[in-house]
Every structure is written in structure tokens, then in C-alpha cells.
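pasting for the record
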Amino acid sequence: MGRGALHPRRRTAAASPAVVALALAWAASPAGGQLLPAREPTPLSAAGRSLVLPGWGQWTQGKRRAVVYAAVEALAWVFWADRRGRGADLREEYRNLAWRTARIPDGERRDGAWAYYEAMSKWSSSGAWDRDASQPGLQPEEDPATHNGSIWALAKGIHFAGGSPTPGSPPWEAALAWYRARAYGDGFLWDWRGADGDMAAYRRLIRDSDDRFREATTALGAVLANHLLSAGDAFVSARVPGSAALRLLPPAPASGAPLRLSLSWRPPR
């Protein structure tokens, strides 16, 4: 594949919170709160259904707030898909930028693991893998200002114990094995020197990609919380005879949230 090749991705459309807001407004309207004529599932049955599919347990009880849980579930999954898709787009962008600008080609392009691209964001140059290929064996990079050079410096600090072992000795071979396991070899070398603007753009793309993947993880947390809340709500609603009230409240002065949701149970007297 050529150095300038791109890999376009189809992006997932972002969902609007207006969907959930409309569902909340409808469920909290003073029309009675019932979706269907109320049934009487057991508390465990209602909770189990809502644990599997938020809102299901409320639906079997005829509660209109089932729509709220279902809407939150759908929005959270759409948001997750959008953030994951955008994170993958940005990941492809920074990999392509690194290939076009910094990576030193040695045959067909091979993409590395996350740690490789993270190292590229911290070191302007990988340095050489073998600083003198004309000599037999491996001569590690000596410049500590490069990634591979810093790896060799650490290897010597760990295995040389302040001495100067000769090549082929046990300490030297131990340090060399440490270097081989952590330094980057041919096909994965890079050099950003003279391309500071591109390196800065690369770092921004990595940061933005990480942010999108982190937001996707947060969306999964919201999905889990919605399942647990819906299950708890369904259990209490079936266990405690009475009515549950779902209300939209004005935003708190310090919260900055556009609206607040209050869910409470009111057992019969």
C-alpha cells in the first residue's frame, strides 16, 4: 500500500437528546402514567425483564415510563456507536499521517499496536535499530535522545551494574535481549524531525481519538446504569402496591442541566 493511501470510514450519525426529552415529557404528562391496562407480574419477573431490556418490566405493568427507559437505552447505544465510529476515524487519520510524514518505509506498510503510536507521539525519532548493519550481530542505538537509544540506555543501567561488559558476555547478552524486546526494528522506525507541525497535528489526533473512545466507554456505563435502574424501578413498582410518579423538574441553578427527572413511589395509605 502506498504511503499516501487513506482508509475512509462511514460515520454513524449522532443522536439528538431531544428524543429522550420528548419521551420524558410524554411520560411525565398528567394523563395518568398508564401505557396499557395494568397487569400484575411478580416483582422478580418484572425486574428480570427490565434488567434484560429496560422498560420491559414497566410495560408489563402498564407504566408509561417504560418509554423513557427504552428511549434512554436507544440513545445510549446510538451515542456509543457514534463515538466508537468517530474514534476509529481519528485513529485511521493519525496512522495515515504518521505513515505519510514520519515513518521510514521498509517494504509493505504494517500498523503497530497502540503502544507503538503512543511512543511516536513522545519521541521525535525512533533512532536506528542496528546502528551499523555492516558489522556482524546487533549494535543497538546509542543516542539517548531517540526512543531506541533510551531503551538501550535503560538496558545497560539494568544489566551492566555500573561495569563495562564486553559483547558476548552474559550481562551484554541480557541487555541485548532486553533491547530486542522493547526497541522498534526495521519497518517501524520513524523520524518527525523537521516536521514539528505534523507531529503536533498527530498528537492532537491521538488525543481526540482517545477522547472519543473514552466517551464510548462512558455510554456503556450509562447503558448499565439504565438496566439497573429500570430493574430496580420495576421490582419496587410490582412489590409495593401504589403509584409511581415521574416528574420533570426545572433545572437546578448550579447544575446547568436543561431538565431534571424525579422518580418516586407513593404507597397507598
